[in-house]
Design goal:
The chain is an alpha/beta fold and about 450 residues long. The protein contains 16 helices and 8 strands. It is about 45% helix and about 15% strand.
Length: about 450
């Protein structure tokens, strides 16, 4: 009974509010900036157009100006109101948020259920296509914070994840399938965040006392906290060059130049270290511990067999050594060399697996990093691959075009950065004349 009464009252309030707003905007004495003919323009007065608002559809009578030598025309009232794709800014804001979080049809249903808006899924998609580039440009021109506290550690992480795409996006690209045809395109994901001095343990803290987790589990008591609100995300469907520029620009806007120490965390991929070398010279490079532990397991499986007790025992022992001993990586390399047979079919793959540790020796000083209170895992960017990209773009039955995927990601980055409301606040153009009339 009460629920029915609430629904009817809400509908009545929306209907009355819509009528008031429609009357206000159709008032002939309302002064609209730029509502006069420019040289060469013809005016088509009083053209009626329906604009979707939060209160319902508005039938607006407005002047349309057209110049024969210019493509399209202009509608000053729509420009003053910020109308986009036939929607007010309030509607566009909700549609962009819903469409960035859910598939378009689900977003349509959510908007109708939550606030009575009736927008087709395709209209939500068009709004995102129209406004996605604005989110990207806006995010790139955000001012940097004025200061960072002395002793701040600045972290940069990078990773990649594939999304399913339409056939035209993978023409001529090799894939891992049986037919050799690619079905996905990589989205590169970057994250920056800081660690304040008060969040860091005192220098020289004995990392060896900390409990060593199993290689596949997170080290709960060895994670230093991030500075609240400092995490920022960036994505691109482009190549490593474009990604490096975007990630470096993000870091600059977050005042990387004011940090006491810059740390770059990666999973060991060659392109990740090359990106760090080119765009973040001087950063301390750390190989994600859990990827290192996985390679320990791979080496043990080669030497003692997959899923065997000796392999599991040695994996646990070497992972503990790697993490908790001051010269852990050197000890693991030395012991592994001694365990590799001098001949036989195991030797070649074992040497290849060992080369991973030898090539990344300088990035695997985990005892030292923990003693300094630094992160040793790249879990932040791995989580971003799931939350920023996967939750929206990797659902069952989805196949994306790269421009459409990029628009979604640009909006999702702003959402994850906690700056969605700020974007709309800055996008709303002041209309003092309309405000006076109201």
């Amino acid at each position: 009974m009460l629920g029915c009464l609430e629904d009817k009252l809400r509908d009545a309030l929306r209907r009355d509010g819509r009528q008031c707003l429609e009357n206000l905007l159709n008032d002939p004495v309302l002064k609209v900036p730029g509502d006069q003919s420019r040289p060469g323009e013809s005016c088509h007065a009083g053209r009626v157009n329906t604009v979707e608002s939060l209160l319902g559809p508005l039938a607006l009578r407005r002047n349309y100006y057209h110049h024969p030598e210019q493509a399209g025309g202009r509608v000053p009232l729509d420009e003053s109101l910020g109308v986009v794709e036939g929607c007010t800014l309030g509607v566009a804001r909700l549609a962009c948020r819903a469409g960035a979080l859910e598939p378009y049809e689900d977003a349509r249903q959510s908007l109708e259920a939550y606030c009575g808006l009736q927008l087709e899924g395709r209209r939500i998609q068009r709004l995102i296509q129209r406004l996605g580039p604005e989110f990207a440009r806006w995010n790139q021109r955000l001012p940097a914070p004025p200061t960072l506290p002395g002793g701040t550690v600045f972290y940069v992480e990078a990773d990649g994840t594939g999304i399913p795409v339409r056939a035209e996006e993978v023409v001529g690209r090799e894939g891992k399938g049986e037919d050799g045809q690619a079905t996905t395109r990589e989205i590169k994901v970057g994250v920056t965040f800081t660690q304040s001095p008060q969040d860091q343990p005192k220098a020289g803290a004995p990392a060896a006392r900390r409990k060593t987790p199993r290689p596949q589990e997170p080290a709960e008591d060895s994670r230093p906290p991030r500075t609240p609100g400092s995490t920022r995300y960036v994505t691109t469907t482009g190549n490593a060059q474009e990604f490096g520029e975007k990630l470096r620009d993000l870091a600059r806007r977050q005042a990387i130049g004011l940090a006491t120490l810059v740390v770059f965390l990666g999973d060991g991929a060659a392109w990740v270290w090359e990106l760090a070398r080119v765009w973040f010279p001087g950063a301390k490079l750390i190989l994600d511990f859990f990827h290192a532990a996985e390679h320990v397991g791979l080496l043990c499986e080669i030497l003692w067999g997959k899923e065997t007790l000796p392999a599991k025992a040695q994996q646990e022992a070497w992972a503990k050594t790697l993490k908790d001993q001051e010269q852990g990586v050197d000890q693991v390399i030395q012991q592994a060399k001694a365990a590799i047979p001098r001949r036989g079919k195991k030797r070649s793959p074992a040497l290849k697996a060992l080369a991973y540790f030898e090539n990344n020796r300088d990035k695997m000083r985990y005892w030292e990093y923990q003693a300094q209170g630094l992160f040793i895992g790249s879990g932040v960017v791995e989580a971003a691959c799931k939350t920023v990209v996967g939750q929206r773009l990797k659902q069952s039955g989805m196949f994306w075009g790269l421009p459409g995927a990029h628009n979604i990601l640009d909006i999702r980055c702003v959402l994850e950065n906690g700056q969605f409301d700020q974007f709309w606040k800055e996008r709303s153009l002041p209309a003092p004349t309309l405000a006076k009339a109201a």
